Amino acid sequence: MPAYDPIADWYAAQSRTGSLRRFHDNLARRLLGMAGDVSGKRVLDAGCGESHVARLFARHGARVVAADISPRLLEHARNLEARDPHGIEFVEADLAKGLPSHRGAFDLATANMMLDDCEDLAGVLRGIAGTLKPNGRLLLSMNNPYALAARGKVDDYFASGTLTQTFGTERAEYEVPFYYRTFAEWVVAFRQAGFLLRSLVDVPPDSGDPHLPDDPVPKILLLDLVRHDT
Fold this sequence. Notes:
Blueprint: H1 8-16, H2 21-35, E1 42-46, H3 52-59, E2 63-68, H4 71-83, E3 89-92, E4 106-112, H5 121-131, E5 132-143, H6 145-150, E6 161-163, E7 178-180, H7 183-192, E8 195-202, E9 220-227
Parallel strand pairs: 1-2, 1-4, 2-3, 4-5
Antiparallel strand pairs: 5-9, 6-7, 8-9
């Protein structure tokens, strides 16, 4: 069973009207700003969840395909699309196995707070890379590994692996896996999947959002990667 299925109803509600809405709104707007003009561009929203990012990009003229491994989250996303259509195509897929039906189809991909949840990070990154056109971009948000160490979420910065503590789902009666990696391990994974880092943005704290606390080290990073074929 996909990890988010048991909490999909709670997660969708929190993302739309609850404690996660401000957080997701903030990151979605920042990803869109990083993307620039997306009108007419083909965009893959990888790990779309209940479609927060997909809908924002579609409202700005992108032609969006939204993929997720969770049938229940996709059900929420499709129901919302049926009520308020934006021309989004939804696909249930394990991106670690690729998306052969859309190979080389996209100008841009987004991955909003989903790669931390992927055990097979290398496979997912290869899967996303395979959907992009040459020089296609991947825009992502992720937990800052240095912040996790500074905030005591990990005891040893260099001890990568699965964490038992939940992140962002403390009120749900279910633990979602979270795979901690050092930043060096992230960079190696990006490079091995064929991505080069174009830019990095630290997301500043937000006094109105408990998910973006005013800590000495920024909690969330935004990365702009480009597919680089050698």
